[in-house]
Amino acid sequence: MISYCPKCGKPVSEGNAFCPNCGAPLQAAQPVQPTPQPQPAPQYNNRFMNQPQENQGPKPDNHLVLSIITAIMCCMPLGIWAIVLASKVDGLWNSGQYAQARENADKAKRISIIGMVLGGLYVVGLLIYYIVILGVSLADF
User: What is the DSSP letter of 17?
Assistant: First the structure.
């Protein structure tokens, strides 16, 4: 085992009574084993955990259910667009793209609401049209 001089710290071979570098007596020289360096704590990016990062707040709702309802019952093109945006929210959040995830969640909600309003206006327009046609056809009798 390698010994080190207690005065200058240079390596000294065993059996020497004095350090060949500085001349210090070596009877107190002890074999020195390298001390392990403390390892830094591992940094987790919470990629697969649903815990918020520092200053990122909670994960946004992806509004997927609202998007599906919009696609089925109200306005299919806008509903499909909203489904595509909503399905990207979780992946973006887990990959650390928090601003993009929030933006997609907000867009999915906004597009779903617009699709529901347009679908509702379409239904109301159809009802008015059928009432007018029914009224005109009954007026002829």
Answer: S
Question: What letter does residue 63 receive in the DSSP assignment?
Answer: -
Identify the H or E element spanning 93.
Answer: helix 76-94
Cα of first residue to Cα of last residue in the chain, in angstroms, is: 117
Indicate the domain borders of the chain. Answer: 1-34, 64-139
pLDDT in tens, 82-128: 999 999 999 998 888 898 999 999 999 999 999 999 999 999 999 99
Identify whether the C-beta of residue 18 lies closer than 8 Å to the C-beta of residue 7.
no
Of 30-39, 42-51, 52-61, 132-141, least confident by mean pLDDT is 42-51
Query: pTM for the full model?
Result: 0.56
Phi, psi of 49 (to 5 degrees): -110, 145
Tokens of 117: 């309003």
Is the distance from CB of 58 to CB of 51 less than 8 angstroms?
no
Contact status, residue 102 vs residue 86, Cβ threshold 8 Å: no
Residue 53 to residues 6, 40, 87, 88, 99, Cα–Cα distance (Å): 48, 19, 21, 19, 12
